[in-house]
Design a protein that fits this description.
Layout lengths: L6 E4 L1 E5 L2 E5 L10 E5 L8 E6 L4 E7 L1 E8 L13 E6 L4 E5 L3 E7 L5 E6 L3 H4 L4 E2 L9
Antiparallel strand pairs: 1-9, 2-3, 4-11, 5-10, 5-12, 6-9, 6-11, 7-8, 7-10
Length: about 140
């Protein structure tokens, strides 16, 4: 079995006297069916845990920065609470898209006030009710 891991897709910025253009040209959006933007109320709130067996997500920080925690789920009915948590910091100035493949749960927190996180999904909203798993933020013990 091939293990698919989260990965980042690097972008860049072009600047001249007119301003700047941020881009991630290597991000193939042909699988994207929808997107949404998340803005946490404050920097204390952690959103999570939410996982998907089938759907994958791509995360891009529009402004500010976010701390994202990822867990590869071992058992969807009752995941091991001591699964390793992988942390990734995403900053708007880095122009990176983080791809989180199916099989993972995420939790995230804004590290700066008014940070905005753009999230892409590869299934329509009608599918989400069939593939949406949630656990309390304190469920995984490493957080």
């Amino acid at each position: 079995m091939i293990s698919i891991e989260p990965n980042t897709i690097q972008g860049g910025i072009a600047q001249d006297e007119r301003g700047s253009i941020r881009f991630v040209n290597e991000f193939d959006m042909s699988l994207v069916k929808r997107f949404y933007i998340i803005r946490n109320a404050d920097t204390e709130l952690t959103r999570g845990w939410r996982g998907h067996k089938i759907e994958q997500r791509w995360f891009y920080v529009l402004s500010g920065e976010f701390s994202l925690d990822l867990v590869k789920i071992d058992n969807w009915a009752k995941p091991d609470q001591s699964l390793p948590i992988h942390n990734i910091i995403l900053r708007a100035g880095e122009m990176k898209v983080l791809n989180v493949p199916n099989g993972y749960a995420t939790a995230f927190r804004a590290l700066e006030q008014d940070s905005e996180l753009l999230v892409y999904a590869d299934y329509p909203l009608s599918h989400a009710v069939e593939d949406d798993f949630t656990w309390p933020v304190e469920y995984f013990k490493s957080i």
